[in-house]
Amino acid sequence: MSRIELVANAEDHRIARLAAAAIGLACLDAAIPSPLPGVKPGFANIVTLIALDRYGWRTAAWVAGLRVVASSLLFGQLLTPGFFLGAAGALASLLVLAPWSRLPRQWFGPVSASLLAALAHIGAQWLVARYWLVPSPGLIYLLPPLASAALLSGLVNGLIAAAWLARHPCSETAA
């Protein structure tokens, strides 16, 4: 019999540590009661913002993807509507963060990234809910409170990520 051996490098270990932190924060999110369906603080996105700033978009994408899959497995939601809502939101956020990551850091920091990602996240979730889960035109009335919640959580998470990055300078640069 042949055997396949996988060797983890330093980047694999870094991604695993960041994903574990994001999963832990996703557990904290799940413990907080929600005022509206789908409204959560999104604390796990702080780790994605830190990964984006320190290690680049590719690492942030791995962290976000692993968090979505592992959290859904942990909570027993793999391939449920909640999983697809989370995956759509994460994908939309990553698609917005890809061009953002090429902008000059002196003008665009973690707060602007977080605000854009939060709006993309809730927008994608709303589209999935509207056109797949609850195909009702009445869902349009949820957009203002959902967008407001996204802006608030995006601002808070961006400020937390910016404060953490300022307190923990790193000699490594984004890839």
Automatic annotation (TrEMBL):
Keywords carried by this UniProt record: Membrane, Transmembrane, Transmembrane helix
Segments crossing the lipid bilayer: 82-101, 107-128, 140-166
KW Transmembrane (keyword) present: yes
Gene3D superfamilies: 1.10.1760.20
InterPro entries: Hpre_diP_synt_I, Hpre_diP_synth_I
The protein's name: Gx transporter family protein
Organism the protein comes from: Chitinimonas lacunae
